[in-house]
Amino acid sequence: MPESGTADRFPLGGMRMMVRDMKHSKSIVLMGLLMTIFALFSLSGCRDKDPLTKSGSCGENMTWEYYASSKTLKITGSGEMVTEDRFMWSDYSIRRLIIGEGVTTVAKDAFYSNRDLKGTLELPSTMREIGEFAFYGCSGLTGPLVLPDSVEKVGGYAFERCTGFTGIRLSASLKSVGDEAFEELTGAEGTLVIPDGLESLGRSAFYKCEGLRGDLILPDSLTEIGSYAFAGCGFDGTLRLSAGIETIPMNCFCMCGSFRGDLVVPSGVKGIADHAFTDCGFDGTLTLPDSLEWIDEYAFSYCRSLTGPLVIPGGVKFIGPSAFESDEGFSSLALPAGIRFICSGTFRSCAGMRGTLSLPPSVAVIGNLAFSGTNFSGTLVLPEGLRSVGEGSFAWCESLNVLAPLPSTLESIKDYAFNGCSGLTGDLVIPDAVTYIGSHAFGHCRKIASVSFGKGICSIGAGAFEECASLKTAEFTGSAPDYYGQDEKKPSFPAECAVSALSSEPKTFLEGLPENAADSSDGSGGAEKEVPYYWTQSLAGEDFRGTGPFADYVLRFDSVGEGSFSAVFLLKRNDRTVAEIPYTADANDYENQTVRTDGFLCRGGRILELSHENGYKNAGILKGEILFDDGTSGEICFCAGSEECLRIESVGYGMCPIIKEIP
Predict the structure, then answer these.
(1) Listed residue (239, 243, 269) closest to 254, CA to CA
(2) pTM for this one?
(3) Which of 5, 374, 552, 636 could form an S-S bond across to 459 if both were Cys, CB 3.0 to 4.6 Å?
């Protein structure tokens, strides 16, 4: 066929095929271009999805990077973390915290109070130390808190109030835990294993970790433990104390109401500070070591379930106020031979204590409410050398049967001392040295048949023998003292009691007082009138009771108005107001606090000035010199607390108070 048939060889259909092929090629190119563009956009999108927002250095060989989109903070490098500013990442919103291997510390305050720090906390195996306040208040952290075994130190407040943690696992290498390091991890539950090798545990280290359970075992390597260390925790097993501790600090285990079993204080412990075991739930026996020297106030108070005999070792020289108050389960009491004072409330409401109460011959003062509410029975023998029986000391000890002859050294029997001792029988003989029997002192002692008073009695308080149904006679060796008669609101004796004295005229409570006592001073007294003295205002309304033979006297300071330059105190005897005594004082002198008068009388002696100081447990004390008509003088003291406070001196935390000799 002729070749001139090109048109025939490439008909219109061929042209279409050629065009179609060209279009196909262009489509492929266009598709490739679109895919390239799409890939580029995709890659760009990946980079922009979590862009690096901030970064910087946080140590010599360490950097940090923060990605805002994912809220991720990465800390990488090696060595110690050092932050440029306090609270470095405290205001960052962090959903994931990555601390890389090689990092050895978390800097102080690094995440302080960052509630936007969420999730679990994972620390690298190279971590050695958590700085103070590092994660303080990071309540958004959840899951168990696990410290790698490389961690040796947790700084103070490091995890305080991280309430989202569900458990605590301490490092096997841990040596030191700072103050309040794990305080109020209220969400943490389960057991707490304290590692062997731990040496020091700071104040309030685990305070109010209420969800902790099981036993608490403190290793013998632990030699320092802070106050409140485990206060308010929920342990419901036994407690094993470290043999390396000499003093159990204040409030250390208080309010751990779920502890069970025996409480054994290990050998080597010398002192137990105030409130150390208050309100603990132990339901076994208490064993105290022979090394023990002192027990401070409220140390074992409200441990209601402790049982068995309470034996206080012979080396104990001091037992503080309310040390065993309301410990209802103890069955008996053995006191150490050298104890000088039974402080106020020491065994108050120990209702389970029974049998004979044997007081050591060394006891000189029995404080207020010391044995009230106990159930000792038989004969109560008060030792020779005893000076004072405090307010309510044996109140409502209904099982006591006989009160043995009182010691010749006894000077005062305070208000309510034996009130409610309904089992006491027989005749009561008051020694010559007793000057004061307080109000309601023997009230409701229904079986006392008679009472005879020695030569020294000066005052008998209101209701002293009220409701003593069997009391028929009251005899005085000399003239009758000041007492409350039947025409007064609270007569000292029941109406059926015959009161007799050698002299029919009772001593007047105004005897020996100046007639013009109420205005015996012009208020000068040497004070600087141009400056008000504020320190005396703190004494307003407080009763300072005399001690020894002056126990029936009370000083009550009147209130001081703003801008006042002088004031008065009320002088009371046997709870009757005798006079208003003007006084002056050095202005704002907090180191030398002295009140001055023109002289007022107490039982034949004149007092010109009194110095004020705070005694044991801040009990207010007024001391002065009393000048007698015969030219002799002596010391007179008034105390706002229980009388033993005059003879006890605090010397510092964790140390046995000094016991002063009684002149």
Answers:
(1) 239
(2) 0.86
(3) 552
